[in-house]
Amino acid sequence: MRPRNTVGRQFASTGTRLFISFVGIILLIGFVASPVLAASPTLASQNSMASGSLWSKGQLLVTTNKQYRLDLLNNGSLVIENANFNILWSDEVNSSSGAGQIELQENGDLVAKSSSGRLAWSTKTLSRTTSTLELLNDGDLVLRNTSKLLWTSKTAAPTRLPEGLSNIDSALQVIIVTSDVGSSSYAWLTSYQWTAEGWTSEFPAMAARVGAHGWLSGSQRREGDLTTPLGDFSIGTSMYGNQPDPGVLYPYHRLVPGDYWDENSQGGRLYNSFRHSVITNCAHNPFGANTECLWEEKAAYPYFAVINFNTPSAGDFGSGIFLHATEASTEGCVTIHVPDLLKLLRWLNPSDNPRIVLAGASPLHNF
């Protein structure tokens, strides 16, 4: 925020001038030191704000796909803009003072105030609980608490595919995984559901990890190269896990000793598939190569869904690409925290033909 301009006045008394100068210094110190008004160096990377946040003019929120942003303009208007600076939504407030503030109050209400503190606009969402304001990747601004949606700007076009996708066949559920750069193992996961009102965001964006070596086109991948394949994939017909069925809508198989994922690319047509054997010695697994002993991966596989990359196998392009749990980079899978994983797996419905788009840093209109 730029420093305010002050206009000096002439006073006959030197003591008066000193007094005014002293007061001005105190006010300036308070202004500069105020933690809620100071510009944050990480502001441009945030797509949400929590209860108790108070921000001033300038860029407030930016979607993780960098396609939309929430701005408080110089005229006091709160707006959502796309990448071309077209305004998609506005609170229609034009503050003559030109110095507004946005506050997400502890009672769940989002308010816009003039520089004098006068209420200019409000979502009127007194939920009496803490809430979160989030700018979604489809351009929609939503306010929600832990249990329900409180308010939305209704910016997202109802028939437009989520985040600018070109084609998702007949899917009614879509998961999108993106990264800032193609070599990164850090990612964001977003989820969308088709409803009578159109495409709606299902959950807030989730932090994810992908392959340690980033992203690579599926046709360029090779077994063990530690990359996540780019592409649009369906979800496997069964879910698996070392824990009991958490209440998913898919057929669920609880893993037992002898449950493997065949990762031997020279092993024939069953490469990249679930296998079972009476042999439970991983050091001498019956399928060869780096075949994975699923029942021994308790931390990574409390539950997981199969991402149908290279299934059925069309060559040595990699195997065992799952949506599972961990906080580290992977050998090619997509991983999220366990609470988020449970939400996703319970939400996925085979009758909705869900798709997962592994986009990395590629433009989403390519998918």
Number of strands: 25
Please provide the ordered H/E string of secondary-structure elements: HEEEEEEEEEEEEEEEEEEEEEEEEHE
Helix content: under 10%
Biggest sheet architecture:
10 strands, mixed
Distance between the termini: 39 Å
Helix count, per DSSP? 2
Question: What is the average per-residue confidence, as pLDDT, rounded to a whole number?
Answer: 81
Binned strand content: 25-35%
Could you walk me through the main structural features you see in this protein, from its secondary elements to its overall organization?
With 367 residues, the chain is mainly beta. The protein folds into two domains: 43-91 and 99-152, Agglutinin, subunit A (Orthogonal Prism); 162-366, no CATH class. It is 8% helix and 33% strand. The protein is built from two helices and 25 strands. It has helices spanning 14-33, 338-347; strands at residues 48-50, 54-56, 58-62, 68-72, 78-82, 87-90, 101-104, 110-113, 119-122, 132-135, 141-144, 149-152, 173-178, 186-195, 198-209, 215-217, 228-241, 252-254, 259-261, 274-276, 292-293, 304-307, 322-325, 334-336, 355-360. Strands 13, 14, 15, 16, 17, 18, 22, 23, 24 and 25 form a ten-stranded mixed sheet that branches. The chain has a four-stranded antiparallel sheet with strand order 1-10-11-12, with no helix packed on it. Strands 2-7-8-9 form a four-stranded antiparallel sheet, with no helix packed on it. 38% of the residues are buried.
